[in-house]
Amino acid sequence: MRSSTTKSKVVNLQQDQSVELNPMCQEQDLEKSKQEKEAPKKSGVSLILKRVVTIVVSIALLIEPIYSTYISYQAYNNFNNLSDQIKTEVTDRYTQRMILDISVSSSCNAEWDTLFLWIFQGANIRCDCRGKLGDNITVDFCSPDQEAAGCTQFNFINEKVLSLYPSGPKDDNSTQICVKQYVGGPTFATIKSWNQNCPSGQKLCGGSSIESSICIDSSQLCPINSIVVQPTNPDPTIYLEQQQYNSTHNIYYSRTSNNLPINYYKVTSGEGPCYNITQENTYSGRVDPFNFKIQRSPCEIDPRWSRVAEVGEYSFYVASGIDPPSYFKEVWSFYQISDQYRYGFYVSHYPDWKFNNRDLISQVTDFVDNRESIMTYQTTLLYLNVANLVLNGLFALYLIYILIKNISPDEQDQLVSWKDYYNNLIKIGQLGVCIFQVLSIEDYLSTFKKCIDNQVSDSRTNQILVTVYNYMNTQVYEADKKLIISTAAGFAVAILGFLFNLYQKKKKQKEEEEDEEGQQQQS
User: Which of 27, 92, 123, 273 is the most exposed place for a label (fewest CB within 10 A)?
Assistant: First the structure.
């Protein structure tokens, strides 16, 4: 009985202890269960937050490349549309060779060039049926029916160079004015401010005014800076040399007048050469025959040209081997063996440019010469921005895809890392090219600003320099600066996105390590 009573007490004691210990075990079990439930919740919240932030960052990254591409296209398009006026009316005039000597002959030697020539572009085949069958003009031979109706056939006319001038009456021999150019030496564009002290091996040429002075090789003749064609010498103290032009006129020329050297010469009808040197001028109201390949029209006259001589249009054609009445048939009504219309022979000098600022000529010329290189950089910037836009656009589509499809976080992280890598590479390229481009344009703008501030040339040239400066500054330079800011902002957002993803990855890794440690302690 005593033994049985003792066993019963022991069992009761164990049950009492078990009852006392159970609340502690249950509390631990509840805590563990709570942690296990909260772990996926934290992970889910973290994943949702990560997706939200990634979407926000990606939208920001998409806005930036759209804006940057737009700005880049503006800069590209604006620079592409920069007028060629700076080339045709300024720099081309400072890169032409100077004239060293003049000769009048029936033909020019190999080392000499023809001073005045005009290229007749030729005419196309036409069938003129105006007022007859069809009442129109066709670009073809006349058909038998058109011929029967009295239509006029105009045959093809080849291009022809007109360079001979009548030396007197129409039956006299024709002549050419030949010139020898300054070959192998510096052009005006490379002449600096030497204050009348030329470098070794060179000599000073020009008139009494320092503004007309230049330096050339000592072995060369000083360039010609004035030409007149007159019956008598207008100033024997200046025009020291002459050539017989025809039976009544001589060519008088000078190397010591107060002009810069002559470097341009042109033949044109009308009242003089156009500002647009490539345009062919003609008389007001004058219309070329319908089948001519080039139709001339009156233009704005450039006063920087001087008329040296003139010749009647009929005589000019006859001297160059064209018989207008038979060559053009009845197309030109004014060809009644008449010189009513005239061709003028014109010369132009290097435009005035202040002597103390002549070093700027080569810098302005450098801008024009490097225009294609600048354009290449603008094109590269545009391509980089388009590539950046495409990359971010594809990534935005990917984000939509992962919100629809359940893709593993590891795969998402891998694709995000890939996008960040290439996106940042493009951004670095964009910034590098853009900064280089801005610095280059800034340097050229500084040159143009000096030209404008010093009013270096004549009014026409100065106005062109002002126009180019304002256009480059407001349309290209400012756009490229905005592009730097936009690209840098996009780069900063990309870096922040990268750092956030890195932070999230480290945080997730730390949480996993803490969970693993907690499980080890509990076990």
Answer: 27
User: Is residue 453 situated within a structural domain?
Assistant: yes
Phi and psi angles of residue 159, each rounded to the nearest 5 degrees, phi first: -65, 145
Residue ranges of the alpha helices (H) in 348-477?
359-369, 371-404, 409-454, 459-471
In a domain, 388, yes or no: yes
Same-domain pairing of 389 and 323: no
Mark the ranges of the chain whose per-residue pLDDT is less than 50: 2, 6-7, 9-11, 13-15, 17-21, 24-25, 39, 169-171, 192-194, 330, 334-335
Give residue 200's Cα distance to chain centre: 38
Q: What's the pLDDT tens digit per position in 475-515?
A: 888 888 888 887 787 778 777 777 777 787 788 778 777 77
Together in a domain, 337 and 190: yes
Look at residues 350, 381, 397 and tell me which one is the last residue of a structural domain.
350
Q: What domain range includes position 230?
A: 97-122+157-350
Distances (CA, A) of 365 to 87, 115, 301, 444, 454: 8, 25, 24, 10, 17
Q: What DSSP character marks residue 123?
A: B
pTM: 0.69
- Residue 299 contacts by C-beta under 8 Å, 6 or more apart in sequence? 270, 274, 275, 276, 279, 281
pLDDT at 469: 93
Residues 297 and 340 in one domain: yes
Domain-ending residue, one of 350, 384, 417: 350
